[in-house]
């Protein structure tokens, strides 16, 4: 079977029918845990869950164990659920793996088997893909992570404003493990009022307008003074480094280069935005905000960024990245400030 995205899997649950076998792999472990929770909730009655749910690590399995787990009949229910984690370890256990693959070709109608691969091994197991409904769990882009936060907050009973979800992602990042931790903190607060973006700013220590994305946008929009003034505050935030900021800027510059090449063919306005969106969905680069938001920004400023200027900016970003990784003479603040000023000088020279 072909591998599916998590979105496709999530939508398939609303249609009702469950596959006999599921296989989850990829780098985002939180989505795998969420998928297991959704499948168990859909397949088992809560009152009989303890009798019909088995969760084991592949490291514990031998051929007889695989056979027994997958073929035992349910107790006073239509089906059992078997969750086997760390399935990548079965590559070292040939006989147990052979037994599992044999089962996948002729699964029991009374058992739902869920195979979960650890994020340490991100590649797909082609044998498991052929024998199960396969789902690749990739990191979410920031805009989709904000939607995930809003949905998860509702499940936890947290009254979270949409703007607050967006600011949380912009402040903490799109890594779901970190967002899960922040949501747990929010769930412990008194539920006296909706949590606003201002409240999020107080809790995480990142004010609105002072995220890494705000810095990057200020650079791209030629607001040099603003970009320079943001550097100290952003570098003081948890999880932020000079290399991370330069990488984000470099990724945006590459997207801007694609936008400018389309701009030079005569595209403008809505047609330019749609062409950029299609290019983004075709290549699916990481390290960006929502594709439509990025396309709108790049299309709006493309006229100020001729190809020659973009090439010079990419060279400056590469030199800053190398300086951040190798030099001991300049601190991160100095390297980033120099980069912003160099790009600002390029504007003046272009004018």
Topology of this structure?
Elements lengths: L3 E2 H8 L7 E5 L3 H15 L5 H4 E5 L5 H9 L8 E6 L8 H12 L5 E6 L9 H6 L1 E4 L5 H14 L6 H11 L3 H12 L9 H8 L7 H9 L3 H12 L6 H22 L5 H15 L7 H11 L5 H20 L5 H19 L1
Parallel strand pairs: 1-6, 2-5, 2-6, 3-4, 4-5
Helix pairs in contact: 4-5, 7-8, 7-9, 8-10, 11-12, 11-13, 12-17, 13-14, 13-15, 13-16, 14-15, 16-17
Description:
The chain is of the alpha/beta class and about 350 residues long. It has three domains: about 5-135, Rossmann fold (3-Layer(aba) Sandwich); about 140-205, Helicase, Ruva Protein, domain 3 (Orthogonal Bundle); about 210-350, Zinc Finger, Delta Prime, domain 3. It is built from 17 helices and six strands. It has helices at about 5-15, 30-45, 50, 65-70, 95-105, 125-130, 140-155, 160-170, 175-185, 195-205, 210-220, 225-235, 240-265, 270-285, 290-300, 305-325, 330-350, and strands at about 5, 20-25, 55, 80-85, 110-115, 135. Helix 7 (about 140-155) runs parallel beside helix 9 and helix 13 packs antiparallel against helix 16 (about 305-325).
């Amino acid at each position: 079977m072909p591998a599916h995205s998590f979105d496709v899997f999530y939508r398939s649950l609303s249609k009702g029918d469950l596959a006999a076998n599921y296989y989850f792999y990829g780098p985002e472990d939180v989505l795998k845990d969420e998928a297991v929770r959704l499948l168990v909730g859909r397949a088992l009655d809560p009152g009989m869950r303890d009798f019909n749910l088995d969760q084991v690590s592949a490291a514990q399995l031998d051929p007889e164990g695989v056979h027994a787990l997958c073929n035992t009949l349910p107790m006073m229910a239509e089906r059992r659920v078997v969750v086997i984690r760390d399935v990548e370890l079965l590559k070292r256990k040939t006989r147990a793996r052979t037994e599992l693959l044999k089962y996948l070709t002729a699964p029991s109608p009374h058992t739902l088997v869920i195979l979960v691969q650890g994020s340490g091994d991100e590649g797909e197991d082609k044998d498991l893909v052929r024998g199960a409904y396969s789902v690749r769990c990739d990191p979410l882009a920031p805009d989709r992570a904000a939607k995930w936060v809003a949905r998860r907050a509702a499940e936890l009973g947290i009254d979270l404003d949409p703007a607050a979800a967006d600011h949380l992602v912009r402040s903490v990042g799109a890594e779901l493990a970190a967002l899960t931790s922040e949501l747990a903190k929010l769930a412990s607060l008194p539920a006296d009022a909706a949590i606003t973006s201002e409240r999020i700013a107080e809790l995480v220590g990142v004010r609105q307008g002072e995220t890494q994305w705000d810095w990057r946008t200020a650079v791209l929009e030629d607001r040099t003074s603003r970009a320079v003034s943001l550097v100290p505050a952003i570098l003081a935030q948890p999880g932020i480094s000079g290399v991370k900021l330069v990488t984000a800027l470099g990724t945006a510059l590459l997207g801007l280069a694609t936008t400018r090449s389309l701009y030079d063919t005569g595209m403008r306005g809505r047609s330019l935005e749609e062409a950029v969106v299609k290019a983004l969905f075709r290549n699916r680069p990481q390290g960006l905000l929502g594709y439509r938001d990025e396309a709108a920004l790049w299309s709006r400023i493309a006229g100020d960024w001729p190809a020659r200027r973009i090439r010079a900016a990419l060279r400056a970003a590469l030199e800053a990245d190398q300086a951040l990784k190798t030099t001991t003479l300049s601190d991160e603040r100095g390297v980033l400030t120099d980069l912003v000023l160099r790009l600002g000088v390029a504007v003046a020279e272009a004018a």
